[in-house]
Amino acid sequence: MASFSTITPIEYLKGVGPNRAEVLKSELGIHTFGELLQHYPFRYIDRTQFHKIQQLQPDMPAAQVIGRLIHLEEVGERRGKRLIGHFKDDTGAMELVWFQSIGWLKKSLKVGAAYIIYGKPNVFNNQLSITHPEMELYHPGAKQAGNMSLQPVYSSTEKLKKFMLDSRGIQKLQAALLESIAHHLQEVLPDYVLQKHRLMPLPNALVAIHFPRDRQALAQATRRLKFDELFFIQLKLLKNKLLNTQKFRGHRFDVVGRRFNTFYSKHLPFSLTNAQKRVIKEIRKDTASGAQLNRLVQGDVGSGKTVVALMSMLLAVDNGFQACLMAPTEILAQQHYNSIKKLLGDSVASVQLLTGSVAKKDRKTIHAQLEDGSLDILVGTHALIEDSVRFKNLGFVVIDEQHRFGVEQRAKLWRKNHTPPHMLVMTATPIPRTLAMTLYGDLDLSVIDELPAGRKPIKTLHLYESSRLRMFGLMKDEIAKGRQVYIVYPLIKESEKMDLLYLEAGLETLMKEFPLPQYRISIVHGKMPVKDKEFEMQRFIKGETQIMVATTVIEVGVDVPNASVMIIENAERFGLSQLHQLRGRVGRGAEQSYCILMSGQKLSKESRLRLETMVRTNDGFEIAEVDLQLRGPGDITGTQQSGILDLKLADLTTDQALLNEVRNSVIHILENDPKLTKPENILLREYLTESEPTIAWEKIS
Ligand code: ADP
Ligand code: MG
């Protein structure tokens, strides 16, 4: 008897063969028995629910009807071409409409036959219709769909359908597959985990997800399979975290020394918020432990991450180490440098800035100072990671606005000392908790969840073009009070020319409304040479200009506390987290600040929701949740490359409770048996050895 397993190539499955195997590979990426098994249904049709044509309403999400296909006709020309099927039951008639695969449908649909159709009813010109319905021949009396009340629906493609692999065809393969390997399916979780979490055994779950007996069985199977998806991600992440702390000795910072204390008592111009204090304490605890610090600091815009970074770096310097801070853009690096210089004065520690535009001569000096140890803190862009930049004793690395950097770049920083430096990652884009737990589950997480006292919440307005004069009025009022204003235009990669046109047209109106010499305007856009950009930015920062017109280059991190108005043109074209970032550029002083979202009259449902969310709340975490729901985890900045979000059933937006349960379970397991050597954990140990955890350098976030 042939022995099958989940890694058996798919062509060996009964009913597949070389041709079908080829399309399964090319269309669905299915190469093996196991991969087919994981091609789960995306929906189930409740075969107990049928409607009559007379009952169909356009507001129904979808309906299932039994009737007869009376006639097929092709109408329209070229792009308007479509196939219309006249469909009838004993209560009425309707149309079935197809715009695609017309030739193939004409061949395969049987005029005169009875069908079960499924789709969303529409009414157009008083005519009831369903566009691209799912069609299945109806055999009265026969065991329809294996006599199940819930029929699985699998995603398929036109090409697969030509090989008779529509949803029904795939279902047949699944049946054959389960028959051939049902006896070889093995449990992957220990018994005590199954019992504790009341999980359906894996073999049963795999059968039930494809052929559910009823809703309850389906729900149990789904829960079990989602549990596994999340469980093994967490197991890997948390095991890695454990390994990292065991394996990588970290530089030990024993003292809180002179510089830290001098800064704290003499230079710090404000008192720290409790959240800032807490995070600094967490960092102190990590760096005193002798293990490697690997921490993500999340804090909303304006929560004061820079000073936390600075104090951590001073801690390093006090203990005889150097520190560096890497920012994603030149402007940001410059700003960090300026604010750190300003905060430190000249006495506390030596600081330099290194970016691509630093002159060769100065660069040489910096290199020399780094190597002989006379430079304490280096701020810069990715120029920091170049091989020519060598530290005498790098002990602490801060990476700001983490999502702009790749894992590779971070790994390079790690390698700049024999014992890797501590690594603090700061992100200004709040990430929903579920996503953070999944993406950064192996980093410790600190959250600065408090804004400095005395800040007034930013008032956000959404205005249409017709209210432009009101917007100008508000600008003038604020400028009259001595405040400054940002105006941001969208930047769309596909047509930089168009962007510039928008910006220029806007500028023309603006200059008429805000004439010289009373008003002065800075302009910054992506097409300008870096030096000019820098010059314009500095004029605004110094208060020489009152209005800053820009494309989104100012998005991240720019800090001009005197600016009190953020105007975003074509706000409907920005993503939520971007809007929130931009708004965070104001509200940094004690004054009332405003964010004005300008948009056209016509808005898509999604744009409207984005703008409404912005008006409703200033809370970055709440905004991140909405963003996650709108875009899904794959699109949230910086997560695209991370394969760990390749979840088939689990959904990070809706499965929060399950994720918590899973994570706690894994934490509990590892606490009791960190090396997974106990007999009851043998399955877990085997899983990890087989999947060869990628630890060390590449695994820092
Ligand atoms: P972000 O977290 O967005 O990077 P910054 O570190 O740029 O925020 O801080 C925003 C502004 O708030 C800066 O002007 C900074 O000097 C100021 N700030 C930071 N912490 C405090 C505090 N505890 N009290 C008052 N102002 C603070
Ligand atoms: Mg910042």
UniProtKB/TrEMBL annotation:
InterPro entries: ATP-dep_DNA_helicase_RecG (IPR004609), DEAD/DEAH_box_helicase_dom (IPR011545), Helicase_ATP-bd (IPR014001), Helicase_C-like (IPR001650), NA-bd_OB-fold (IPR012340), P-loop_NTPase (IPR027417), RecG/Mfd (IPR047112), RecG_dom3_C (IPR045562). Belongs to the helicase family. RecG subfamily. Keywords: ATP-binding, DNA damage, DNA recombination, DNA repair, DNA-binding, Helicase, Hydrolase, Isomerase, Nucleotide-binding. This is ATP-dependent DNA helicase RecG. The keyword ATP-binding applies. Residues 286-448 form the Helicase ATP-binding domain. GO terms for biological process: DNA recombination; DNA repair. It catalyses: ATP + H2O = ADP + phosphate + H(+); Couples ATP hydrolysis with the unwinding of duplex DNA by translocating in the 3'-5' direction. GO terms for molecular function: 3'-5' DNA helicase activity; ATP binding; ATP hydrolysis activity; DNA binding. It comes from the Bacteria.
